[in-house]
Design goal:
The chain has 311 residues and is of the alpha/beta class. It has one domain: Rossmann fold (3-Layer(aba) Sandwich). 43% of the residues lie in helices and 7% in strands. The strands form two sheets. A four-stranded parallel beta sheet has the order 2-1-3-4, with helices on both faces. Strands 5-6 form a two-stranded antiparallel sheet. α3 links the parallel β1 and β2. It is globular.
Length: 311
């Protein structure tokens, strides 16, 4: 066995020597080095190997309609930024319990509708992937929402580190405005702290803004009550309300178990009847439009103030 191992090792050494001898003199392989990187290399491969890996190669496909980074190719993002889309929204949601009707990913489903609406209303913005895991309580003591099965939490320092790394990645590619919006209460302080830290470091060259105005469910509820469109009755004492349920409905009615609730006679929350599908769809659209309008106004002001929010 020992002789066999020595023989195999000798063959490997010989093969390496012969390979080096056959490589052209002065080449990277002949020197035992990898080829020098080409500054035009992009797309996950070498420009020299395929023109679709070259930084300046034209996109062979039509412009996509999505505003979500994760649904775009690197060429789509490159071309969108060249066209002026230099603002990127980083939405943060959560996985937490929300009564018997709403899916655990409540805030993430809300953001699917709202971030896209905000980006399109701004006109020069894209949405980064939703940060779906946020601080929800302690997993050792099962504090906060961690008492309920299915909840996934993040330590506060982990959450902030993720936000910082996302922002640094986006800055590296040339985005000029990085906007944090959080759809849950546990997201707000971390977003604010990271925005302040990076603004102090980058001194306004890249703006980072936390938008607390986006997370104003009481203000949204008041607006729709004042308009006579949605008036809560007695609270059902659940982690649910008509505004957030309808906001989720806009993304996917199944996330609030809509059909099942209608059949079971349970399609109401806080005294607000949701069983009229056409009416619910219209209200859901109005909620998304209103929240986008509020957020867009706050984002534009924050950018104009170089990241300083004017609440």
């Amino acid at each position: 066995m020992k002789r066999m191992s020595i023989g195999i090792a000798s063959c490997l050494v010989l093969a390496a020597v012969l390979s080096a001898q056959q490589a052209p003199a002065g080449s990277a392989a002949g020197r035992g080095q990898r080829p020098a990187p080409d500054p035009r290399d992009m797309g996950g491969g070498r420009c020299a190997a395929n023109p679709y890996n070259c930084a300046d190669t034209a996109n062979p496909l039509p412009v996509v309609s999505t505003v979500w980074l994760e649904e775009m190719t690197w060429m789509d993002v490159r071309d969108a930024m060249k066209a002026g889309k230099r603002t990127v929204i980083v939405p943060t949601g959560g996985v937490e319990p929300n009564g018997p009707w709403l899916a655990l990913g409540k805030h993430n489903y809300v953001l699917q509708s709202n971030c896209a609406a905000i980006a399109r209303a701004l006109g020069n913005a894209l949405c980064a992937p939703i940060v779906k895991f946020v601080p929800e309580g302690d997993y050792n003591t099962k504090s906060g929402h961690m008492a309920s099965p299915g909840t996934i939490t993040m330590r506060e320092d982990t959450f902030r580190a993720i936000l910082e790394d996302v922002a640094r990645s986006l800055k590296a590619h040339g985005f000029e405005n990085i906007i944090f919006i959080g759809d849950s209460g546990g997201n707000q302080e971390g977003q604010k702290a990271v925005a302040e830290k990076l603004n102090a470091e980058w001194t306004g060259k890249t703006v980072v803004a936390h938008i607390p105005q986006y997370y104003d469910y009481p203000g949204t509820a008041k607006h729709f009550a004042d308009e006579g469109l949605i008036k809560d009755g007695k609270s059902d004492e659940m982690h649910d309300d008509p505004i957030i349920a309808l906001n989720m409905f806009n993304t996917d009615p199944n996330t609030i178990r809509y059909e099942q609730r209608v059949k079971a006679g349970k399609a109401s929350i806080n005294g607000v009847d949701l069983s009229n599908r056409a009416k619910s769809a219209d209200l859901a659209k109005k909620i998304v439009e209103y929240r986008a309008t509020v957020a867009v106004d706050a984002i534009r002001k924050a950018i104009a103030n170089r990241g300083k929010n004017t609440e």
